[in-house]
Each structure stands twice: as C-alpha cells, then as structure tokens.
Amino acid sequence: MTLFISLARRYPWQTLLTLAAISFAGLAEGFGISALLPLLNTIFSQRGHLGGSNEPAAEWSNRLDQLVQQALAAVGLQPTVAVLLALFTAFIVLKCALIYLANKQIGFTVVRVATDLRLALLKSLFASKWEYFIRQPTGKLTNAVATEATRASTAFHFGAKLSSLVIEASVYTALAFMVSWEATVVALGAGVFIIVLLRRLVQKNRRAGAKQTQHTQSLIAQMTDVLISIKPLKAMAREQQSDTVLTDTTRRLNRALQKQVLSKAALGSFQEPILILFLVLLLYTALVYWNQPLTTMIAMVFFIGRILKQVEKIQKEYVNLVEYESAYWSLQAKIDEARSAREVLQGDQTPALTEGIRIESLSFAYNDTPVLRDATLAIPAGSFVALLGASGSGKTTLVDMLIGLLRPQKGDIWIDDVPLPRIDIRHWRQMIGYVPQENLLMHDTVMANVTLGDDTLTEADVESALRAAGAWGFVQGLPRGIHTVVGERGSMVSGGQRQRIAIARALVKRPKLLILDEATTALDPETEKEICSTLQQLAGGITILAISHQTALREAAGWVYQVADGTVALIQSPPAA
Ligand SMILES: Nc1ncnc2c1ncn2[C@@H]1O[C@H](COP(=O)(O)OP(=O)(O)OP(=O)(O)O)[C@@H](O)[C@H]1O
Ligand SMILES: [Mg+2]
To answer: What is the 3-state secondary structure (H, E, C) of 79-113?
Structure first.
C-alpha cells in the first residue's frame, strides 16, 4: 500500500479526482440502494408483515429507511413504487457514469505512471556519471524500461481499484450500520478474520512477485549478454553453457510464477466457503435468536453479503498489488541510484579551442589501480596528434578524461586557457567527433547511423562525411544505398565498413576536435592510407587526436606521443615549417 501512497503523492490531482469520482459513485450506489428500502417496506407492509414480527412497521423500520423517507419528504416526493424505482435507476446510472470517469482517470494515470517511470530512468541514466553507467548491465536496464515500468503501473491500477473497493465497502458499512449495527459489527469482524486468516497467502504472493521481478531481470540481462556475444558462442559450440544458465533462470522464474498461481487459486477457493459460513451463521442467529422482521433480514443479508464480498475482492486486489509492486520498487531503486550517481556539470564557459589542449600532470586510478601518473602533453589547435602505447597502458582512459567522462584524481586539462571543470561540458562534447574503439552500429540505416537522429543533417551532409571516411564507394553499392539497414549492431556490413561509417558519423557535424580510438584497425592499407590523407587535409581546420598502433596513421600525424608506465612522452614532432 506504501506504493499506492507514494504514487498518489506523486500524482495528487489524478488520485484525488479518481478517489472523488469513486467516492461519489459509492454514495450514488448507496443512495440507489437506500431508495429500495422504503420500497421493501411498502411491499411488505401491504402484504401484512411477512416477516412474522409483531412489531409495527414504523418501529422496526430501521434508521436508514426513515432517513430516506425524510429526505424524500424534504424534496417534496412521495415514496411511491414508481418514484423509488426511478430514484434507484437514476442513482445507479449516475454511479456507472462516475465509475466510467474514475476508470478513465485510472487508465490515464496508469499509462502516465509507466511513461514517467521510463522517462525518469532514461533521463537519470543519461545524466549519470560514466563510471556508473558502464557498470550497468544493458539487459537489466532494458528490462526495467520494458517489463518493470509496465508492472509498476499495473500495480498502480490495482492500488486504485483497491481504494475504490475500500470506499465502496465503507459506504455499505455505513448503510448496514443504520440497518443493524450488531450485524455490521459481526460482519466487519468476519472480514478482519478472513483477512488475518488468509494473510499468509498474500505474503506468499508478495515473495513470489519479488522473485518474479528478480528472475525476469536476471533472465533478460543474461539473454542480452548471450545475444551480444552469440557469434563466438556459436563458432566454438559453447552456446550449450549459456543455454543451461538461461534455462535454469527460466525454470526459476517459472517456479515463482507457479507460486503466484497457487497462492491466488488458494485464496480464491478459501475465501468463498469462509464467507458463506459466516453468512449462514449470521442468518441463523438473526432468524432464530434475534427474531428480526423479514425486511430488515433481507436488507441485512444484502449489506452484509456485500461487505463480505467486498472484503473478498479487496483481498484479491491486494494480492495483485503486492505481486506487482516489487517491480515498482526495483525500478524506483534504479532511478534513485542513477540520480545519486549524477554527473556534476558545473562549468559554464564556452570553449573555443583556438590555441590548443594542455594536459598537465594528470593522474588517474581505477579504484586503487593507478593507470596514469603525472601525464603531460600538449595538443596544439589544428594539429594531427597520434597517441601510441601498449594495450592497457591508459590511452582510452586519457581520452575519456579529455571528453570529461572521467575526472582525473590529480592534474588539469586546459582547453586554451580554461580548465575543463570550468567549461560547459555539453558544449565541449558537441565540438567533438568521436570514434570509439568498439564501434557497434545501431540496427538502422547507414543514414541514421551517421546522423544519430539529428534531422538538421541532410543527405548531402551524410554523403560528404561518408566520402571523407572512405565509405561512399561501398555504401553506394549497398542494395538501398544510404537507406540500407546495417543489421543488428551493424553485423550486415564488414568490420572495416563499420569503422568507416563510424568515422563518417564523427565527421558529419564538422567537429573542432576529432578523436579516433583505434579507428582504422580493421582497414586494408589502401583504405587506411586514403583516410589518413583525408585526415591530413582536415587537420589545420580541425584538431585530430588518433590513438593507433598503425604505422600509416603514425606517419600521417605531426605529433606522436607514447604512453608507457603511466606517463606520456613526445616521440615525434612535426618538421619545422
Ligand atoms: N572501468 C574500468 N574499471 C577498472 N579498470 C579499468 C577500467 N577501464 C580500464 N581499466 C584498466 O585501466 C587500464 C587502462 O585501460 P585503457 O582502456 O585506458 O587502456 P588502453 O591503453 O586504451 O588499451 P587498449 O590499447 O587495449 O585499448 C587497463 O589496465 C584496464 O584494465
Ligand atoms: Mg583503448
């Protein structure tokens, strides 16, 4: 229920409106049913107190009955059969209209809850620190956006339904109280008894729901990992192992789902007999010991039956709520975690990059493992710089700090004469064209992979970027040219073609700083040479930083730095002009 309260706090208007509509609907139904009481009275009085009671009608007729009579008199209506039936119909129609309104509101809110949760997760993830981001398993996040958001909003739906049932039950209880307070107290006691008796089943379902959330999360996360590395798995016939792990998780999920089915089925079949037993006992006591008139009996049985039925429904909805709520908490925890790992962007100075980049005495360690120690290097504006170094020496790490993804523990990075922390980092990144070491394309067209959804870019922009990246030739040969879909992670084009599309993507926005992290490793010497000469032409206008082991790139670059033992050494300068 904390879930519903938490959501109600977040959507106060929607919840208030829904609850108001439900409350009025409950009242309307109450009025409708109350209108029937004098009718019963009328019928039975005319037929001479079939209840067998000796009491006169006025005395045994309950308070509710009298209230209705008074209300009718106040508005100048006679309690005739026609008036009472018309009132009953009118109130029930009103109730249905209000319920329609409430359901519509609930539906809208449910959809909004899911959408808002999804957006909150996406926003908080995109705004989170890089170190945090890379620790998140893709599958877990996909699952959160897809499954958990839906289940969380469904939980809200059950919460709203539960509230409406509670309101309805309160109306019935109030009416029943006026008919017979003793019977109402007994009915409420019975309701509490049923709830307490079957509480274990509810708790079982809560645990099974939490397990469902946990196993679905693991399943999707494992599945995503397997799919990403399916090729080596298949090539080495090792898919069997992954299959075993996935099957195992699927079975666990199945068991959790079975437990839910079992506890719900048990709840359904235990509730009814307990309820009937109470009703029968009550009826027996009332008939034999209380010697109640038949009209009161009918009204009483009606209300009490309804209260108990309502208790049954409330418990059922509560079971549904607890089953789904774990998804909400799991998703909310992810959102909160991502929010607390928010990337702090304090700088507001607009970078220019007219003089160059200076990296001074930079030190960085992942946890306690040092990678860079007092690294110093200069990248003059318009230069073409190559960064060499053994695998694991810290080249990518250095670039990540230059982009502002990682923060150095010591030292500074200066863009012209402004330190990076004082720079508007988003603006800085918008000036960068970046080709990562592992370039995986999106399952979309070549065009979309180059523009990354920026619709200010034209086909002509894309073509010139592809030409500069040495990709135009092969793209033209694709079945639908730049509108050809490149397949999952770009697997329908070759590794070298993927690299060239990624280079075009980095070039298309005419960056001021181009960063290539091992961007030409998959290219044949001829294509690589072509790209190198394009880069040489581009240098001067833009600054280029290329991490590479390739000799072609090294020869094309003016400045060459070597990263080794955590420090950076200049090993080649451009010939003096
Ligand atoms: N997120 C991380 N958490 C912990 N250690 C990391 C992380 N990323 C990289 N490292 C470690 O930091 C060191 C430098 O990594 P980096 O990726 O910068 O190397 P690199 O020079 O780019 O290597 P390569 O040429 O193989 O790409 C490596 O020893 C690596 O294992
Ligand atoms: Mg690297």
So the answer is: CCHHHHHHHHHHHHHHHHHHHHHHHHHHHHHHHHH
The Å distance, Cα 437 to ligand 2 centre, comes to: 6
- What residues does 365 pair with on adjacent strands? 370
Asked whether 366 lines ligand 1 (CB < 6 A), one says yes
Type of residue at 240: Q
Tell me which ligand sits closest to the C-alpha of residue 387. Answer: 1
C-alpha closest to that of 329 among 208, 213, 157: 213
Distance 139 CA to ligand 1 centre (A): 23
CB contact at 8 A, 398 and 563: yes
Q: Which ligand places an atom closest to the C-alpha of 132?
A: 1
Q: What is the reported pLDDT for 283?
A: 79
Nearest to 465 by CA among 428, 435, 423: 435
User: Which residue stretches of the chain have pLDDT < 70?
Assistant: 1, 41-62, 576-577
DSSP 351: P
**Distance from C-alpha of 110 to C-alpha of 116, rounded to nearest angstrom:** 10
- In this structure, the residue with its CA closest to atom 26 of ligand 1 is 391
Structural domains present in the chain: 12-334 (1.20.1560.10), 356-572 (3.40.50.300)
Q: Whose CA is nearest to atom 17 of ligand 1?
A: 396
Determine whether the shortest distance from the Cβ of 505 to ligand 1 is under 6 A: no
Kindly write down the DSSP assignment for every residue of 16-81, as one continuous string. HHHHHHHHHHHHHHHHHHHHHHHHHHHHHHHTT-TT---S-HHHHS-HHHHHHHHHHHHTT----H
Q: Which amino acid is at 288?
A: V
Residues 194/42, Cβ–Cβ less than 8 Å: no
Q: For residues 484 and 478, is the Cβ–Cβ distance under 8 A? A: yes
Model confidence, pTM: 0.81
**Rg for the chain (alpha carbons), in Å?**
36
> Which residue in 559, 434, 449 sits closest to 507, CA to CA?
434
Closest of 154, 213, 173 to residue 300, by C-alpha:
173
> Nearest to residue 41, comparing CAs of 69, 7, 1, 71?
69
**What token pair was written down for 134?**
């890379």
